[in-house]
Write a structure and sequence with these properties.
This protein is mainly alpha-helical. The protein has helices at 30-45, 53-57, 60-70, 78-89, 103-115, 120-139, 169-175, 179-191, 195-199, 228-235, 250-263, 273-284, 289-296, 301-306, 312-319, and strands at 2-7, 10-15, 23-27, 206-207, 210-213, 222-225.
Length: 320
C-alpha cells in the first residue's frame, strides 16, 4: 500500500508491498504521487516491477573497481585488460550510474577514441571490455540493465596482414640481436609460437624435440615440434636458475624488435608478423592444413587461413 506525507519540499510517497523493498519518491503534488504509486503497485501486483535503484546509483567507476577485483584476475591478458579498465575509469562514462549509460553515451565514447587517432581494432577491444562489464553486472551482480554496447555500430576492422619477411631482412634483424633476442626471433620463425607463449617457456617444457605448452591464448594445451635450428636457439640461451628460457617481459622483446627494425630501416614489420612468416613456411615445407593447425594452435581453419600467405616463388617451383 502507499502512504502520503506532506513536506516542505512536496509530497513524499512510499509504496510497501510484501516481497519487495520499500520504495519512495517526492512529488510536487499529491496527484502526481498518487499516479506514480498506482503504477508501481500495479507492476508489483503482476510481477513486472523492476527495482533499478541500485543500477542508477552505482557508478561505472564502482563497477569497474569490482570487475578488477572479481573478474580480471581470472582472465588471460589481465595486464592489458587492466589498462583498458583504467582507460574507462578516466573517461566521462565513469561517474555515470551504470543504469544511466545509454547507447548515445557509448557511441560518443567510441567517437572520442577514434578522434584520438586510435585504430579500429583498439576501439573495438575497448568496447568489448565495456560490454563485458555490463554482461557481468547483469548476469552475476543481478542488476536490471540492458547492454548499450550491443546497440551501437562497431568500428570496421581489417586485421588481416600479408607482411612476410623479404629477402635479407631476417639476416639484418639477427645481426643486431643480443643472445636472447636472437633466440626468440629464431624460435618465433621456426615454431609459429605467439610472443606470450615463447616468453612463458620453461626449460622443463622442452622434452626432446618437443615444446609442451600448457597455457596458451585459446586455453588449449598443445605440443610444438622443434626443428634443429629451434633446438640450437634454445641451447644457445644461458641457464636461468628460475627455469625460464627468457628473462624479460613480452613487451621488452617487442620494443627491442621495433628498435632493431628501425635501425635496419625495415618498414612495417611487427614481431607478430614472425608468426605469419612461420605459418606460411609450414605450408611451404609441405605440411597439410591439419598438421599446421596442430602446431600453430589456431582454433579454426578460417583463422589459420588469415595468417597464411604463401610465397609465390615457392608455389611456382611446385608447379614445375
Amino acid at each position: 500500500m502507499a502512504t502520503f506525507t506532506q513536506r516542505k519540499s512536496g509530497w513524499y510517497v512510499q509504496v510497501r508491498r510484501k516481497g519487495h523493498k520499500t520504495i519512495g519518491r517526492t512529488f510536487n503534488t499529491k496527484g502526481e504521487g498518487e499516479k506514480w504509486a498506482l503504477t508501481i503497485e500495479s507492476s508489483m501486483g503482476v510481477g513486472v516491477y523492476v527495482d533499478n535503484r541500485e543500477s542508477l546509483a552505482t557508478t561505472l567507476d564502482e563497477c569497474l573497481t569490482r570487475y578488477s577485483s572479481e573478474i580480471l584476475p581470472h582472465k588471460k591478458g589481465a595486464d592489458r585488460e587492466k589498462y583498458r579498465v583504467d582507460l574507462l575509469k578516466s573517461s566521462f562514462l565513469a561517474h555515470k550510474g551504470i543504469g544511466k549509460i545509454k547507447q548515445v553515451d557509448v557511441a560518443l565514447f567510441r567517437d572520442e577514441r577514434i578522434g584520438q587517432g586510435k585504430s579500429a581494432s583498439t576501439v573495438t577491444k575497448d568496447l568489448a571490455l565495456l560490454s563485458h562489464v555490463f554482461t557481468i553486472a547483469i548476469k552475476e551482480w543481478g542488476m536490471p540493465l540492458t547492454n548499450p554496447v550491443l546497440m551501437i555500430r562497431k568500428p570496421k576492422t581489417d586485421n588481416a596482414r600479408d607482411r612476410r619477411l623479404m629477402h635479407g631482412e631476417e639476416g639484418l634483424i639477427l645481426e643486431l640481436c643480443n643472445q636472447e633476442m636472437h633466440s626468440i626471433v629464431i624460435l618465433a620463425i621456426e615454431t609459429a609460437m605467439r610472443r606470450g607463449e615463447l616468453v612463458g617457456l620453461m626449460r622443463s617444457d622442452i622434452r626432446g624435440r618437443v615444446a609442451f605448452l600448457s597455457d596458451t591464448k585459446n586455453g588449449s594445451a598443445r605440443s610444438v615440434p622443434l626443428s634443429k635450428r629451434a633446438l640450437q636457439a634454445i641451447n644457445d640461451l644461458q641457464i636461468n636458475i628460475y627455469g625460464n628460457l627468457f628473462t624479460h617481459s613480452a613487451d621488452y622483446y617487442t620494443k627491442q624488435f621495433v628498435k632493431i627494425c628501425k635501425a635496419q630501416n625495415i618498414k612495417d614489420l611487427r614481431f607478430h608478423d614472425l608468426r605469419h612468416e612461420a605459418t606460411s613456411r609450414l605450408f611451404e615445407k609441405g605440411l597439410d592444413i591439419m598438421e599446421a593447425k596442430a602446431i600453430t594452435g589456431h582454433k579454426s581453419i578460417q583463422m589459420l587461413s588469415r595468417y597464411t600467405h604463401l610465397n609465390a616463388d615457392a608455389l611456382a617451383d611446385k608447379l614445375g
